[in-house]
Amino acid sequence: MHAQQIERKKMMSLKHLRAPTAGQRRPSPLLRLVPGLLLLLLISRPAQASASTVVTRLPGFDGPLPFHLETGYVGVEEETGTELFYYLVESERSPGADPVLLWLTGGPRCSGFSAFAFEVGPVKFVLAPYDGDLPQLVYNPLSWTKMASIIFLDSPVSSGFSYARDPKGRDDVGDYSSSLQVQRFLNKWFIDHPQYLSNPFYIGGDSYAGKVVPLIAQYVSEGIEKRQQPHINLKGYLVGNPMTDPKFDRNFQVQAAHGFGIISDQIYEAAMRNCKGDYVNHVNQMCAEVLQTVKSLISEILDAHILYKKCVFSAPKPTNDATARKYMLEESIELNEAPGRPAIDCLTYGYYLSYFWMNNNMTRDALGVKQGTVDEWVRCKRELPYKFDMPSSIPYHLNLTMRGYRALVYSGDHDLQVPQLSTQAWIRSLNFPIVNDWRAWHLDGQAAGFTMGYANNLTFATVKGGGHIAPEYRPEECFVMAERWLANEPL
């Protein structure tokens, strides 16, 4: 039988295996127009290039999932055996027409599951005291999958369930190399999912992911222009409280701390007088001393959201918790250390629950995690080496917007890690004309934040009451903001 006929027969079989749920699934992807070159690549690519699992139920979630979930691996580097793990949630509205988002979590090396369960994804944890039973999940009615299909990616390698067979692949990674791996991931992923090629495509992320998002978008754009990859329908990108350039990100923390009432007028004036506008490089001893005072005062509050209580973070460095270890389920893998237990009224309590849920074998089996690849899932693996080798992402913001790509830059306005003052400052440095003056944007008749529109399709918005990861603190406001922006409507 001809090779294409064989492949077509395989795809028709897959169609029956992935039967549509009412109102959610579109016609078989191969019935849509697929360029001949992509079909040839699909047939000839190595069998190990990707592996996927359709997930219909999750442990701790009552009943079948009310959304289409696919998980899988995509190989991005043969030499080191690097494979990136992803979660695809198809749009619950109109998957054939709605945008597709690639969503990255910050850190670096925080799992894409963090966004899946705590930020913009379709589930959330029931915040009940952990007693050794499997934590429970419920549906999130404010999931951005109401309006878009989202790929939640564990990147860079060793985030979440992404792995490299060679330790060099895990340790020798940085801004540029990880962004190139994401580009390779997208190339292979779209070859495997050609039904999404015509959908508007956006790349998004918060915090440190916001620094590499423009770089990844640049790589994708260049690949499209050089015809080195599938013709992805890249439309733009969105970043929240994004790390961008230290001379902006860190340099405005002093001003923000003064504005929030964390440091006094006298301390602020001493900082201005002795540091001469440079709060990143200590220009003299007096500057260093006053900045140490500022740092000490900031340590009294939660810099991710100045109004929230300080809590055990339960992500970067797990600590011993004998009680938690005692009650670990028999189905769980052998764990090194359970994370520190925050108070149940802490925002981070869900992070704590996720550790036990993810390290349960029932969960791993349901998600299709390869045995022997990741011994212990930790939400953020910040102890691993990482090369912070891109000094600034501003040139990529400039290049992308000048070439017509849409950009939404938003800031939770109670964040002191990357204050909205710093984000406004680097945006001003682009010298784009203002096309829509500063104004409030609204939800239910109330100001939900403030926004300004610039030339070259760049929109800046604040989220009132939001913190460093704005959708965690203000999910409804962020949902409405994203819905309007993706629909090309004014905020």
Write up this protein.
The protein is of the alpha/beta class. It contains 17 helices and 14 strands. The strands form two sheets. Strands 1, 2, 3, 4, 7, 8, 9, 10, 11, 12, 13 and 14 form a twelve-stranded mixed β-sheet that branches. The chain has a two-stranded antiparallel ribbon with strand order 5-6. Helix 5 (175-192) packs across helix 6 (209-225), helix 6 packs across helix 14 and helix 9 packs antiparallel against helix 10 (285-298). It starts with a helix and ends in a 5-residue tail after the last helix. InterPro entries: AB_hydrolase_fold, Peptidase_S10, Ser_caboxypep_his_AS. One of its GO terms (biological process) is secondary metabolic process. It comes from Triticum urartu. GO terms for molecular function: acyltransferase activity, transferring groups other than amino-acyl groups; serine-type carboxypeptidase activity.
Question: Could you name the key traits of this structure?
Answer:
491 residues; alpha/beta; twelve-stranded mixed β-sheet; 17 helices; acyltransferase activity, transferring groups other than amino-acyl groups; glycoprotein; serine-type carboxypeptidase activity
Give a brief description.
It is built from 17 helices and 14 strands. It is α/β, with parallel strands linked by helices.
Q: Roughly what fraction of the amino acids lie in strands?
A: 15-25%
Low-confidence stretches: 1-49, 315-336
Q: Biggest sheet: strands, sense, closure?
A: 12 strands, mixed
Number of strands: 14
Question: Nearest-angstrom radius of gyration?
Answer: 23 Å
The gross shape turns out to be globular
Q: Structural class, from helix and strand content?
A: alpha/beta
Instruction: Please report the distance between the alpha carbons of the first and last residues.
Output: 55 Å
Helical element count?
A: 17
Mean pLDDT figure: 86
Helical percent range? 25-40%
GO molecular function: acyltransferase activity, transferring groups other than amino-acyl groups; serine-type carboxypeptidase activity
Pfam family, one: Peptidase_S10
Family: Belongs to the peptidase S10 family.
Organism: Triticum urartu
